[in-house]
Amino acid sequence: MRIDIITVSPELIKSPFEYSILKRAQDKGLAEVHFHNLRDYALNKYNKIDDYQFGGGAGMVLMIEPIDKCISKLKSERDYDEIIYMTPDAPILNQSTANTLSLKENIIVLCGHYKGVDQRVRDLFITKEISIGDYVLSGGELGAAVLCDSVIRLIPGVLGDETSALTDSFQDDLLSPPVYTRPASYKGADVPEILLSGNFPKIDEWRSEQAYERTKQIKPELLDE
Predict the structure, then answer these.
(1) Rounded to an integer, what distance in angstroms lies between the CA atom of residue 4 and that of residue 73?
(2) Of 68, 103, 120, 187, which has the highest C-beta tally within 10 A?
(3) Do the domain assignments include residue 125?
(4) What pLDDT is stored for residue 35 in this prediction?
(5) Which of 123, 152, 181 is the last residue of a domain?
(6) 3-state class of 190 per DSSP?
(7) Rounded mean pLDDT of 205-217?
(8) Distance of CA 83 to the CA centre of its chain
(9) In terms of residue numbers, what domain contains 201?
(10) Using an 8 Å Cβ cutoff, are 165 and 132 in contact?
(11) Looking at residue 47, what is its pLDDT?
(12) What whole-number percentage of the chain has pLDDT above 90?
């Protein structure tokens, strides 16, 4: 998988990709992540990429020309399955979306900034819009990092044990059950005996029950869905 991230602040987003699972995925050749500074496509020597809103109002808007130039250059080099815009006024990222995107080959992610982008960018170029929550950040970079992490970890071979991702919360519309490790007893708090029994069918049954109960208590809307 190749992901091209278009951003006003590449230095803000690079760090998460230089450690842990995201770094291992790139080292293994399972994922490529490339960063494109929108200012490299600016209109003049002053690196102009934004302007005031038509009709007045507070906040600057990213202009269409630099974004068009960047996306057009990338599309001239390869085909893209999705061009995603990170913005708070969009459907919220969920596990189903991450699963679907993990099957794609080439993706562009455009990070919003300032007041957002010229609406014509969204109308002409964007194929999918994603939010990571009903709140506003200073830019789309952190959201893009969250999106990429949720997608890349699902690529076969990225995780040491591929079954780990299959038992994560939301994969089956349930939250994960509680998990425990050594020691079996700590300051009077004990691991449930069933997990120490070696009876794996019973353990699976216990985990399913716990997953259902946790979902019912914490996110009952998942059961409705």
Answers:
(1) 12
(2) 68
(3) yes
(4) 98
(5) 152
(6) strand
(7) 95
(8) 14
(9) 169-224
(10) no
(11) 85
(12) 90
Q: What is the pLDDT of residue 26?
A: 98
Under DSSP, the state recorded for 87 is -
Q: Which residue has the tokens 């995107």?
A: 101
CB atoms within 10 A of CB 218: 11
The model's pLDDT over 39-75, given as tens digits with 9 standing for 90+, comes to 999 988 778 999 999 999 999 999 999 999 999 999 9
Average pLDDT over residues 197-222: 95
Bond before 88 cis per omega within 30 degrees = no
Burial class of 94 by CB neighbour count within 10 A (0 to 12, 13 to 18, 19+): middle
User: Within 13 Å and on the Cβ side, how many CA atoms surround 95?
Assistant: 13
Q: What is the CATH number of the domain that holds 64?
A: 3.40.1280.10
Residue 79 CB partners (closer than 8 Å, separation 6+)? 106
Query: Encoding tokens for residue 87?
Result: 């913005």
Helices assigned H by DSSP within the chain: 10-13, 20-27, 64-77, 95-101, 119-124, 141-152, 163-166, 200-218, 220-224
Give the whole-angstrom CA distance, residue 107 versus residue 31.
11
Q: Is residue 179 part of a domain?
A: yes
The one-letter amino acid code at 91 reads P
Residues 95-134: pLDDT tens digits? Answer: 999 999 999 999 999 999 989 999 999 999 999 999 999 9
pTM of the full structure: 0.88
| 131/177 same-domain check | no
Q: What is the CATH number of the domain that holds 177?
A: 1.10.1270.20
- Asked if 177 and 88 sit in the same domain, the reply is no
At position 211, the amino acid (one-letter code) is A
